[in-house]
Amino acid sequence: MDLKSNHTAPVVADSAPISKSRLGVPSSLLPYSSSGAFSPNLFLTVPRKKNGILDDIRASSLDAMKSSSPPHKKTRDFNNDLVAADTDVAYRTWMVKYPSALTSFEQITNFAKGKRIALFLDYDGTLSPIVDNPDSAFMSNDMRAAVKKVAKCFPTAIISGRSRDKVYEFVGLTDLYYAGSHGMDIMGPVTQFSDDHSNCIRSTDKQGKEVNLFQPAGEFLPMIDEVFNLLVNNTKEIQGAKVENNKFCVSVHYRNVDEKNWTTVAQCVNKVIRSYPRLRLTHGRKVLEVRPVINWDKGKAVTFLLESLGLSNCDNVLPIYVGDDRTDEDAFKVLREGNCGYGILVSSVPKESNAFFSLRDPQEVMEFLKSLVIWKKTTSAL
């Protein structure tokens, strides 16, 4: 199966032979074969153009910014009924390939019987709605209650592009594991690691419980702070632009910037990172993110947390990752290529993905979490 697409939204996709899946999914959803062992080498070799701009990012491309930021579905009126109808048809067609995790819930739980589920959740757009002000991306009390209950049933981790402290402030639950900065700042259970994880140190959480703190990009902290200050200064004249320091990455939000000024935002960011060859630029939903050039992402964070939990390389474990952003594709890809778990994409518009299933919005995510809790209690009572 080839996940490459003619659509404008790019995803990481490799061509690989299909192997028999352990997941028991329909043949049209069979995952790739395993791509090999996790590499401890963190540093990437990133191709660059002569002018210093990242060749694989095209940061100044307005098309790239648009493709990573699909518009929200608008309310129907007389003038856009036809367009809305076409969108509905396209979405229903797309769901043939990425069926709803709610309508496919029995299929998921049938495979989960006798297995230990490990749950991984993105935050923005998954547990909370996408909002104009990123500082106001609060999850509802009902969602918090659902996450709290599901975390009592299964090991659960939040993996976000936000700083770990910020996402913990939003979620406010102690029975979870948190990974901030796209997995570059992980607080997890105490485990003995090999030398491959030399950046892992023993620490304590806010309740005084002993934990492992893993920060593979620790040496970049002064550089990230420096770039943050430069970006704040360089974008201060662009109305609506907001720069957020997420500790190991810097996010430049352009959700509230007039579209005619998006290119100006990208040019400002490029101007800064041109002087920092050890940093790279990636696209998210109406956000440009400056990150260290290391071989680490949300997929690596899932692998690390599974190892921390003693759940790696186990046939009786089913990892499930729920996320909405392009950065979540790295986690979807790890589960798909390893034939070991399910990725669930949260999206109300069609786009190519490495996920197996889909959910429309955070409301459906909450229903899925509640269904998992009910299923767990029902099966435990048998």
Give an overview in words:
Strands 5-6-4-3-2-1-11-12-13 form a nine-stranded mixed sheet, with helices on both faces. Strands 7-8-10-9 form a four-stranded antiparallel sheet, covered by helices on one side. Among the domains are: 116-181 and 296-381, HAD superfamily/HAD-like (Rossmann fold, 3-Layer(aba) Sandwich), CATH 3.40.50; 220-292, Trehalose-6-phosphate phosphatase related protein, domain 2 (Alpha-Beta Plaits, 2-Layer Sandwich), CATH 3.30.70. Helix 4 (141-153) runs parallel beside helix 10 (362-381), helix 6 packs antiparallel against helix 7 and helix 8 packs across helix 9. It has 382 residues and is an alpha/beta fold. Mean pLDDT is 81; it is low at 1-22, 24-41, 45-60 and 74-78. A hairpin with a 5-residue loop joins strand 5 (200-204) and strand 6. The chain has helices spanning 62-67, 81-97, 105-112, 141-153, 164-171, 221-235, 262-273, 298-308, 329-337, 362-381, and strands at 116-121, 156-159, 177-180, 185-188, 200-204, 210-214, 242-245, 250-253, 279-284, 287-292, 317-323, 342-346, 357-359.
